[in-house]
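Re-run with default settings, no changes from the original entry. Doing this only to confirm the output is reproducible before filing.
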Amino acid sequence: MIDLCPCCKRELALTFHHLIPKKMHRRDRFKKNFSKQELNRGVYICRKCHVGIHKAYDQMTLANSFAEVSLILEDEGLQRHFRWVGKQKVHSAGF
């Protein structure tokens, strides 16, 4: 899927980022507090932004503190990463 990444604003292939990481879906706390539909919510972002999000925060932190797209986009550390990614050359493979 080629589209505009909402994080770095580059047009390239996007990947699906679960707002509540899939690894957390089987934990009782998340199963009790979220519907399957809520657990499967996410956003399409480019690979470099996706990797940066997962390098910056562990699965539990992402599930507890970044379960909304707006929270990801507002985080100062991630904004810095997204600005850096935005300056990177887009290769034909989208990475």
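The beta strands are 2-4, 11-18, 42-46. The chain is about 50% helix and 15% strand.
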